[in-house]
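Structure (tokenized):
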């Protein structure tokens, strides 16, 4: 009876040992940032406590643009059923090992995959994580096994970036924008302007065509105000547009908001504007036939009575390097 019990447990014990396979996908770049046309190099590292049987090891390279229609534009029901079909940039499968056995201890399977889009739109977009648009790239390793031992899977995401284009620093400074905010500049009716406190705020943005790796800079000055100011804030927005035959939606959502002044500000005091752009939640402005990713900047002036004045700026993000940077 004891021997029968041991015989029954043996396959289960063997399966448990096989399921304890540890493996990970390792890339040759620690920052996991690659350019289109590069070779994606790395290895899949296995660590097995005992010799383990498998039915094949496959590595899949995936690049996809996921689009989602906003419920605000088309309704909850329509948004659920009319989700835009994902755009596949590439989907390549590589067989790392034919069915066989993984040896006990450590073992590695090396790979090299070209980062090239061979189908429409024939270009790799930058990695981007938004609300309604997501551009993702990842490697997926599948270890196939028999039905007694569950198949294993691991994924590793990486980033695609555009190669920076060389620009003259004078080109960037030529997009400087001066602004002036007062009751007269607000889009209000004459009747509504009567209740607005008298104020004048001036300033400038150093450029509206910005490099994603450089901060947004400028300055703002409160010339005079009848009502004390509580706060001045700078808000970065993403404007995502998804268009297709099933539907169309355009939404502006907040990426980040920073406070550049707190409390009542001394008149005539020049306040600097300085905002660092978040890495994965911004990308160069992108306009395609299926979707658009654009960016805007809101300057919010909040008065003591909670009255809010907003000035909106359209900005274009690029990935550039100036001639001075290139010399360094």
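Design, position by position:
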């Amino acid at each position: 009876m004891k021997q029968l019990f041991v015989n029954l447990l043996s396959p289960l014990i063997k399966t448990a040992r096989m399921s304890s396979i540890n493996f990970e996908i390792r890339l040759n770049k620690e920052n996991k940032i690659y350019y289109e046309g590069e070779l994606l190099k790395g290895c899949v590292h296995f660590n097995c406590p005992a010799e383990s049987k498998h039915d094949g090891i496959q590595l899949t390279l995936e690049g996809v643009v996921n689009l989602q229609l906003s419920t605000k534009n088309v309704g909850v029901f329509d948004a659920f059923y009319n989700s835009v079909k994902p755009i596949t940039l590439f989907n390549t499968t590589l067989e790392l090992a034919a069915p066989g056995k993984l040896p006990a201890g450590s073992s590695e399977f090396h790979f090299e995959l070209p980062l090239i889009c061979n189908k429409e739109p024939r270009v790799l977009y930058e990695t981007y994580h938004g609300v309604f648009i997501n551009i993702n790239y990842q490697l997926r390793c599948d270890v196939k096994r028999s039905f007694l031992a569950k198949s294993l899977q691991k994924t590793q995401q990486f980033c695609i970036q555009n190669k920076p284009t060389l620009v003259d620093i004078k080109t960037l400074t030529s997009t400087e924008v001066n602004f002036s905010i007062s009751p007269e500049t607000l889009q209000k009716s004459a009747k509504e302007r009567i209740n607005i406190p008298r104020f004048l705020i001036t300033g400038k943005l150093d450029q509206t065509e910005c490099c994603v790796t450089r901060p947004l800079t400028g300055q703002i000055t409160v010339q005079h105000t009848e009502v004390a100011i509580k706060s001045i804030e700078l808000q970065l927005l993403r404007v995502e547009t998804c268009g297709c035959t099933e539907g169309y939606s355009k939404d502006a959502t907040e990426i980040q908001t920073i406070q550049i002044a707190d409390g009542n500000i001394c008149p005539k005091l020049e306040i600097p504007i300085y905002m660092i752009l978040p890495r994965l939640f911004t990308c160069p402005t992108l306009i395609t036939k299926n979707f658009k990713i654009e960016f805007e900047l809101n300057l919010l002036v909040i008065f003591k009575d909670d009255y809010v004045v907003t000035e909106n700026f359209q900005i274009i993000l690029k990935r550039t390097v100036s001639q001075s940077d290139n010399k360094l």
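Reviewer-requested clarification: Confidence is low (pLDDT under 50) at residues 12-18. Residues 68 and 132 are 5 Å apart (CA to CA).
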